Amino acid sequence: MTRLRPPRNPVDQRAIGWWTANLVILFAVPVLTLALLGVLISPARFWLLLPALIGAVAGVVAVPALPRWWFRVHRWEVTDTAVYTRTGFFWQEWRVAPLSRIQTVDTRRGPVEQRFGLATVVVTTASAKGAVTMPGLDHALAAEVAEQLTAKTQAVPGDAT
After folding, report:
1. Can you give the pLDDT at residue 60?
2. Which among 127, 137, 135 is positioned nearest to 161, based on CA atoms?
């Protein structure tokens, strides 16, 4: 019987900066919008500035803490038989995709991800749960992993339909 062990590979260290930038954008846009509207619309000032303040406090706590925690938790690995990942914050999730179940392998790079030289490998499987993703990989490594996975899945007997 094969025992499942944690995936070995951490995401790239630059993922901390990428996740931090995404969180700054996520918190800053609504906080700044609410603050601006609170300044401009005096009758609703309290009801606009209060959620802006709450959002700012939440951002001050989340932005420095979450990316570092995610870096410690996110792992990935490709073996001769499967792709598996571990992600999550409070609820950690392990995903295992046997090579015989893989339908497509893609890489994705958003604008912020590109700025940090990173990419995400997306492995689509014949699963109702959805794709297995490996975020925060160096873009050259992500291309290499996608190429290797494509070659490996072609060599594995079985069909992912």
Report:
1. 98
2. 127
Phi, then psi, of 94 in degrees rounded to 5: -105, 130
Contact 35, 49 (CB under 8 A): yes
Give the pLDDT of residue 129.
81
CB within 8 A of 82, min separation 6: which ones? 96, 97, 98, 99
Q: Which tokens hold the place of 31?
A: 């906080």
Nearest to 74 by CA among 119, 146, 126, 13: 13
pLDDT under 50 in the chain at which residues? 1
Which pair of structure tokens corresponds to residue 50?
């209060």
DSSP string, 54-114: HHHHHHHHHHHHHHHHHHHH-EEEE-SSEEEEEE-SSS-EEEEEEGGGEEEEEEE--HHHH
Residue 83: which residues within 8 A CB-CB, separation 6 or more? 76, 77, 96, 97, 99, 102, 123, 132, 134, 149
pLDDT at position 3 is: 67
- Parallel/antiparallel/unpaired status of strands 102-108 and 118-125: antiparallel
